[in-house]
Amino acid sequence: MGSWRLEIGKMALYITFPVALFHYFNQPELFEEWVVKTKRELYPPEDTSQQRQFLESIQKIKAKQEADRIKALEKSL
């Protein structure tokens, strides 16, 4: 068996080792670039011209449907 100094040394190692690893591996500088890259892959920046074309197409379709409804109402009257 060991003396009380050995036990204190082991206990200090048991506490210090996980805390030191936690401190080292939780540095934002180590994984910030990876997080930003992954977010950009999952959620790419929106293309505003493509979105504008999409919304214009929806408005044209809605306008055509509205015009068709008005014509159908006029015919029924």
From TrEMBL:
GO terms for biological process: mitochondrial respiratory chain complex IV assembly. It is a single-pass membrane protein. InterPro entries: Pet100. Keywords: Membrane, Mitochondrion, Transit peptide, Transmembrane, Transmembrane helix. It is found in: Membrane; Mitochondrion membrane. Coiled coil: none annotated. GO terms for cellular component: mitochondrial inner membrane. Belongs to the PET100 family. PANTHER family: PROTEIN PET100 HOMOLOG, MITOCHONDRIAL. This is Protein PET100 homolog, mitochondrial. It comes from Zophobas morio.
